[in-house]
Amino acid sequence: MRLVLVGPPGAGKGTQAQFIASHFSVPKISTGDIFRANVSEGSDLGLEARKYMDAGDLVPDEVTIAMVTDRLSYDDTGEGFLLDGFPRTVHQAEVLDGMLADGGHVLDVVLELVVDDDEVVRRLSGRRTCRRCGHVWHQDFDPPARDRICDRCGGELFQRDDDSEKTIRHRLEVYADQTSPLIGYYGDRGLLRGVDATGPVEDVTERAINALRRFES
Fold first, then answer.
1. All domains of the chain, ordered by start, with CATH?
2. Alpha-carbon gap, residue 25 to 161, rounded angstroms
3. What is the pTM of this model?
4. Of 12, 20, 73, 81, which shows the fewest CB atoms inside 10 Å?
5. What does the pLDDT look like over 111-151, one tens digit per residue?
6. Choice among 88, 123, 128, 207 that is catalytic
C-alpha cells in the first residue's frame, strides 16, 4: 500500500501514522523525522529547513522534495509506504506522482484526518514542557499534580512559543492556504478518504484502518 496521510497540525497524524503503518506492515516516512535528522546532523538542508520550522512556516518545496526523494530511494519502500507530512502542496503532490511513475507505481489512497480548528488549538495550546527533563504534559489530557511543576523531576513547566495560540492559529492559516488545496486535488482523482479524528486514539485508529482495508494487497 502506498498511502499519504493528511490533516491539520494537531490532528494526530504522527500517532495514527505509527499505528496504521504497523498494521499494514509498511514503513512510516515522516517529513518531521527527516527534518529533525537533518537538523541534528547539521546538514545544509537541515539548516535551511530549521529557519522555516522555527517560524511555524512550511519548509520550501525544493528542500522538502530533496529530503523525501532521498528517503523514498531506500529499499524498504519497495512494497509500499505511509507518507506523513508530504506532500503539503499541490506542486509537491505532482512531484510525488512523477517519482512514483518513474518506478512504475501509483498512489493508492490519501487518508484525511478531519478535526476542526478549535479542537486543534485546545490540543496544542494546552501542552506544557518541563525546562529540566523535557517531558511534555497537557493541562487537560495529562495534567501534573501541581500547577507548573513537573511530576517527574520537579522542574518548571512552561509553554513553548510553538504551543501558543497565536502560533497555532498561524500554522492553521498556513495549512488552509497551502495544504488544503490537496484535498481538492486528491478528491478530484477519487483517492481521498476522510475519517473523524476526534475522540480516543484507539477509536480514530479503528476508523482509519476500516477505511483503508479495501486498499490492502
1. 2-115+172-215 (3.40.50.300)
2. 36
3. 0.85
4. 73
5. 999 999 999 999 999 999 999 999 999 999 999 999 999 99
6. 88
